[in-house]
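// run 5 | inverse folding | seed 20
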C-alpha cells in the first residue's frame, strides 16, 4: 500500500485539477495535485514538497478533506486529501502534468478523473 497526499487548492470558488502524463495507466487522467509520502514524512510536509517540485508553488496545509483507499491493477494506494492555501509562487507545470485547470466543484464529475480522485471530488460537492 502506497501512501499518497493530494492537495485541494481553491481559487474564486474553483479547485485545481492537473492532467497526468504518467504512468501509462493514469496518463491523460485528471487529479488533485500531490504525490507519494516518503518514509517518515508527514502529509503536510509531503504536500508542501510536492507542490513546490511539481507546480512551483508554496502552500499551507489545512483541513482534511477525505481519505481514499483504491486498488489499481498495478498498485494499491491510500490517498489522503487536504485543503491547501496557496501562499506564493506562479503555477508552472514542472513534472508529472501537462495541463492544469480551475474547475467548479459541481462540474468535477464531467472530468476524466483518476479513479482514486473521484471520491475526493464527491466529498467536495457532497
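// decoded
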Amino acid at each position: 500500500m502506497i501512501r499518497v497526499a493530494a492537495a485541494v487548492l481553491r481559487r474564486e470558488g474553483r479547485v485545481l485539477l492537473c492532467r497526468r502524463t504518467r504512468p501509462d495507466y493514469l496518463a491523460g487522467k485528471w487529479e488533485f495535485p500531490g504525490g507519494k509520502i516518503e518514509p517518515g514524512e508527514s502529509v503536510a510536509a509531503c504536500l508542501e514538497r510536492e507542490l513546490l517540485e511539481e507546480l512551483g508553488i508554496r502552500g499551507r496545509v489545512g483541513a482534511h478533506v477525505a481519505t481514499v483507499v483504491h486498488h489499481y491493477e498495478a498498485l494499491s494506494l491510500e490517498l489522503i486529501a487536504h485543503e491547501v492555501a496557496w501562499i506564493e509562487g506562479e503555477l508552472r507545470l514542472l513534472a508529472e502534468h501537462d495541463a492544469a485547470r480551475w474547475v467548479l466543484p459541481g462540474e468535477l464529475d464531467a472530468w476524466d478523473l483518476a479513479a482514486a480522485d473521484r471520491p475526493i471530488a464527491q466529498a467536495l460537492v457532497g
